[in-house]
């Protein structure tokens, strides 16, 4: 398809959606996506915190180090070609690429790196806490970040492994921004924030060419991208809130990809010209028992519970395509995951475990659950399967706010909920599932352990903090795997599933990468055959 036709097609997609049925067969070099993008509040990397925002930032910007499309499980060079860590001095020194260029044509310099990282801390918008973990404040950040030539030295405070620091620097707010371009559009000391919420200033595989909130995003390929130019000349994301409309557009050939179809709609798709790909997501779903409830404190109850979940029964029916069996606290698909699934539905074994421990049944328990699908369906499945061993759940449905408030107040008995990491380092979840050194009621912690009043054994607390500071990357990952195995074996928190995400697309589309979080959605390798 010639460039003029592609341009006319792109222009047409920017118009209101009425009459789009007549516009079938997208151009060979343009990827057209239907997606609900009304969650976007900000696209400046220093402020972006929504799911769709994360996807855009990843495709528009580079970081010093980054997880990339070729293999989202490997931390790879970005703006930096190499780095040297000094754990004792608590520094990491990065060597910058000498050929890095922003999409504006400006070279990427050490000054841009210092500006970008310090800018996040000084603006102090929503995602700033991720970088602030390194002990950075508006008052000290300029001293913590220094440069000499093409070398950038990052200093941090805290007993952290360099691997942890690298994962923090691979997170969304650590994206490198073109200082000259941002400051050219500064208004009232905002360091370009308002302008960057409608434009891009990165060096990534794409550049933002049009953005209309609640309507459309258009990105153009960076032909000079250092890992190779994207296959698609443009990526166009149309805001289509209704899943049924997304399905219709896909079946008509007006789009290449539908990002928000329901499981029922996915199941109803037919024809050789459409396919569905499934991607594991970072959220893990669990059943937990509050240790303030006396009848739930015996480890035999925890062990029996692991054999009373009908794992395959649920994944084959009510949560098919939405979740897969995963029984450890760190999601599959990222370094340090523990993917063993030793537990299956075995009510006879569960009954024997309870009997051997002298636990009298029935054990009556209230189960709090968000009053929405698939959670209520999952709760009913648990109610039926646990009853087989004499554990009787009374389901208490509530709004998300009501359920989470009870959870934070530690006033529930059993809870069906989910957890996702703030950034992709195993410590993000290890602290939540394997650490609680102070179980006092007045020591509020945003962790599953504290919220379930589980006084974690000293061994696990010690190992969690040791893993955080372990300087050997492989040894550190092994420590997290061991932590997961121990928590999997004995804990009042029963991890059952990992979320999955189904994306429907044309059969000719390949190379789409959707990692475990929105920060790992990549369009650079997409092509149409």
Kindly describe this structure.
With 529 residues, the protein is of the alpha+beta class. The chain contains 19 helices and 21 strands. The strands form five sheets. Strands 1, 8, 9, 10, 11, 12, 13, 14, 15, 16 and 17 form an eleven-stranded mixed sheet that branches. The chain has a four-stranded antiparallel sheet with strand order 4-5-7-6. It has a two-stranded antiparallel sheet with strand order 2-3. β4 and β5 form a beta hairpin. The longest helix has 17 residues. About 2% of the residues have low confidence. It comes from Ponticoccus litoralis. It is found in: Periplasm. Belongs to the bacterial solute-binding protein 5 family.
Q: Are there runs of 5+ residues with pLDDT below 50, and where?
A: 14-23
- According to DSSP, the number of beta strands is 21
Shape: globular
Q: Determine Rg (CA atoms, Å).
A: 25 Å
Characterize the main sheet: 11 strands, mixed
Give the N-to-C terminal Cα separation.
13 Å
- What helical percentage do the residues reach? 25-40%
Number of helices: 19
What proportion strand?
Answer: 15-25%
Q: What is the overall pLDDT average? A: 93
Class by SSE composition: alpha+beta
